[in-house]
Amino acid sequence: MNTMENHKEGRKSGQVTAKHAATAHLKKRPSALLSFTPIALLVVMLVATIRAFGSDSLAGASQVTLIAVSAFCVLIGMDYLNVPWSSFEKAITKNVSSVSSALIILLLIGALGGAWMVSGVVPTLIYYGMHIIHPSVFLASTCLICALVSLMTGSSWTTIATIGIALMGIGRAQGFADGWVAGAIISGAYFGDKISPLSETTTLASGSLGVQLFRHIRYMLLTTVPSITLALIIFAVAGLTIDTTETQELASFMAALDGRFNITPWLLIVPVATGVLIARKTPPIVTIFLSTLLAVACGLIFQREALAEIDPSMFKAAMMSVYGETTLSTSNQMLTELVSTRGMAGMTDTIWLIICAMCFGGTMAASGMVGGITRLFIHMVKGRTSLVASTATTGVMLNVAIADQYLCILLTGNMFRDVYDRENYERRLLSRTTEDAVTVTSVLVPWNTCGMTQSTVLGVATTTYLPYCFFNIISPIMSVVVAAIGYKMSFFK
């Protein structure tokens, strides 16, 4: 009897011990305060890094900072939140794989930028653009041109990497500060990216929430049109008040441009052909690659002198313009700096930074800290206005924490889907708010994939252009304002 009782007690004790052991490995839910700790640490470390290294921070210091904060997340997750390492490993792998195609596009954009510059495509666009666009209307025209191109292509990245680079050159030649020009380019490019039916973000935001695409786009016009209108007004006023380069200096710049490159309308075949490929919905990787090859061919035909300056071998010079750094001497110092290219090699620091940012986003998600941040905002919901404000704030915070706009769009929609359904608000309100907050603000975060890419392509630091991206700044605010007013029109239903 005693033996049986001892056996039962031992088995019961073993079950309790096993239960305690299993419970010990259950994940803990992080508090909102704990969830914000890695982000606060990241911001502090990045500020210190930028102050110490300046523009050289992207060469490795910022990457080390992201990895260090990622390690901090893992430390908290494993020691305090009982999250196993396998969860972190899976999340990081998933995050990095999700941007693999974007990394390839980024490399090709570097090749495109080098080929378009050395072949004379960008110099030709700048030369003709300076004849057509008057400085007083340049900023507003830049925003409008990028908006139309992005609307037709559905891609802010392609718009900025092509026409954006040319407009950047025109703006610098006319004497505008880099921040103003980059802000106008980005404002216009992300307007089109946000409402174009060809845009991946537009399709993702509507499709993931079961909202019909054009119904989603029509509803976004309520916030998007006022936002871009205000941005255009600001750029128009700025263009009339900012002092620009004197006519004599512009003439000197254009003479140097004409003297260095063979400016000919035949080079416009390259952007026209690129536009045709985009209109035919050719995949971005294929479009950028073919456009690069066409530009190289045009360079071999029209810019033989420029290529010879890079290297006596035409083949070697053409290859170097695609993958490496090139410098062409001109009679104008500003033009010499403008036409210098870095090719694919110039994108390696950015790619390294994106991979490190994806590691940080993966550790934040695996540890449950992303959920801790969103739960804080969900608890603040008291009505339509607070619901939209919470959604917008969460979207922006996810852009900061996860650093990839596609993941942020999906997460924001999934987190608030049930809340909107429970409160009897339409899904299109959620899809619109998600785009207002996530799609357009991703480019404002220095370590976000969009922020890093556009900063590299335009050659302007994210913190430099951020204050001038008026459309991107106004959009999430406008989303909350329209929700507070409750404005509706039958056309948008």
TrEMBL record:
Q: Which GO terms describe its molecular function?
A: antiporter activity
One Gene Ontology cellular component: plasma membrane
Q: How does it sit in the membrane?
A: Multi-pass membrane protein
Q: Which InterPro entries match?
A: Na/H_Antiport_NhaC-like_C, NhaC_Na-H+_Antiporter
Q: Where in the cell is it found?
A: Cell membrane
Kindly state which keywords UniProt assigns to this record, in alphabetical order.
Answer: Antiport, Cell membrane, Membrane, Transmembrane, Transmembrane helix, Transport
Major place of localization?
membrane
Query: Na+/H+ antiporter NhaC-like C-terminal domain location, by residue?
Result: 23-164, 188-486
- Residue stretches spanning the membrane: 33-54, 60-81, 102-126, 132-151, 219-241, 261-278, 285-302, 351-374, 386-412, 465-487
Instruction: Name the family.
Output: Belongs to the NhaC Na(+)/H(+) (TC 2.A.35) antiporter family.
Q: What is this protein called?
A: Na+/H+ antiporter NhaC
The organism's lineage? Bacteria, Pseudomonadati, Bacteroidota, Bacteroidia, Bacteroidales
